[in-house]
């Protein structure tokens, strides 16, 4: 009996240790799975934005909300910011319906919004490079997309229309920064031909940064997952009138000429 009691005690101690390790192992497995999904989604979204895709309507199944926090700067003084919201059904400005509407009901509108430059001209809406910001008059754009994972279990993917299952899908926030390339602030002290080169570089080289924050919990709070992907894109960022004045697209095969 004594031997049996000792054996049971040893087994009990071992089981307690195993049970204590199991949650840690499951958490590590979950984090690895989420990291793999983020890597796969980042590849898709980086390539879509970098190439200025006009299609990819399948994105409407995953990108369900986009916000743009816009702040106007007058002589380097920030004004009251505006919040633009975009859903599949329509768009709003500070909670009020926009005119005209710009719903994210196709891939073109989604990519066009995610490609919005960090700085734009307050008059024309055209992208502003670093050199154009010295006058202190510009719009600062902060794009945030709310995305259900593109990769992951097939049971979560369209045509799944169960709202409970959709809400339980792995979801993350995506911060998009389309910044002009860094420019030497001493450029105005250089000869004119070198100034033109710097302006040419600023207009035709951009840095795209996608920051993923995950997971998003049902109460709206975010977990500890954080990863940023960066790439340089040569070419213009231009608007396309046929798609609306608020949409922007990278044009890797087209370059602006500064005179």
Characterization of the model:
The chain is an alpha+beta fold and about 260 residues long. The protein has one domain (about 1-250). It is built from four helices and twelve strands; from the N terminus they run αβββββαββαβαββββ. It has helices spanning about 1-50, 105-115, 165, 190-205, and strands at about 65-75, 75-80, 80-85, 90-95, 95, 120, 140-150, 170-180, 205-215, 220-235, 235-240, 250. Strands 1, 2, 3, 4, 5, 6, 7, 8, 9 and 10 form a ten-stranded antiparallel β-sheet that branches. A two-stranded antiparallel ribbon has the order 11-12. The longest helix is centred in the N-terminal third of the chain and has 49 residues, at about 1-50.
Which key terms come to mind for this protein?
single chain, 4 helices, elongated, two-stranded antiparallel sheet, alpha+beta, about 260 residues, ten-stranded antiparallel beta sheet
The percent of residues in helical segments reads 25-40%
Quantity of strands, as a count: 12
Count the helices. How many? Answer: 4
Ends: how far apart? 96 Å
Shape, per Cα inertia axes = elongated
The total number of structural domains is: 1
Average of the residue pLDDT scores: 84
H/E series, N to C? Answer: HEEEEEHEEHEHEEEE
How is the main sheet built? 10 strands, antiparallel
Q: Helix/strand-derived class?
A: alpha+beta
Radius of gyration from CA coordinates: 24 Å
List the uncertain runs: none
Please state roughly what percent of the residues sit in beta strands, choosing from under 5%, 5-15%, 15-25%, 25-35%, 35-45% or over 45%. 25-35%
């Amino acid at each position: 009996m004594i031997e049996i009691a000792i054996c049971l005690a040893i087994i009990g101690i071992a089981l307690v240790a195993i049970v204590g390790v199991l949650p840690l192992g499951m958490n590590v497995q979950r984090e690895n799975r989420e990291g793999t999904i983020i890597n796969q989604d980042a590849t898709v979204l980086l390539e879509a934005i970098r190439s200025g895709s006009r299609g990819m309507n399948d994105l409407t199944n995953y990108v369900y909300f986009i916000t743009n926090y816009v702040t106007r700067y007058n002589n380097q003084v920030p004004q009251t910011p505006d919040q633009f919201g975009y859903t599949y059904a329509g768009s709003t400005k500070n909670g009020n319906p926009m005119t005209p509407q710009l719903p994210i009901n196709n891939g073109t509108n989604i990519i066009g919004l995610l490609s919005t430059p960090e700085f734009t001209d307050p008059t024309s809406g055209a992208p502003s490079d670093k050199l154009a910001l010295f006058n202190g008059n510009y719009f600062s754009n902060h794009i945030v997309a709310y995305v259900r994972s593109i990769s992951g279990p097939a049971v979560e993917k369209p045509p799944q229309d169960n709202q409970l299952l959709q809400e339980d899908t792995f979801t993350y926030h995506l911060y998009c920064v389309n910044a002009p390339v860094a420019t030497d602030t001493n450029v105005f002290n250089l000869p004119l031909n070198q100034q033109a080169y710097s302006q040419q570089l600023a207009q035709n080289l951009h840095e795209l940064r996608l920051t993923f924050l995950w997971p998003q919990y049902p109460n709206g709070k975010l977990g500890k997952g954080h990863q940023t992907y960066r790439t340089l894109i040569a070419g213009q960022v231009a608007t396309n009138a046929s798609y609306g004045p608020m949409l922007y697209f990278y044009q890797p095969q087209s370059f602006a000429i500064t005179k």
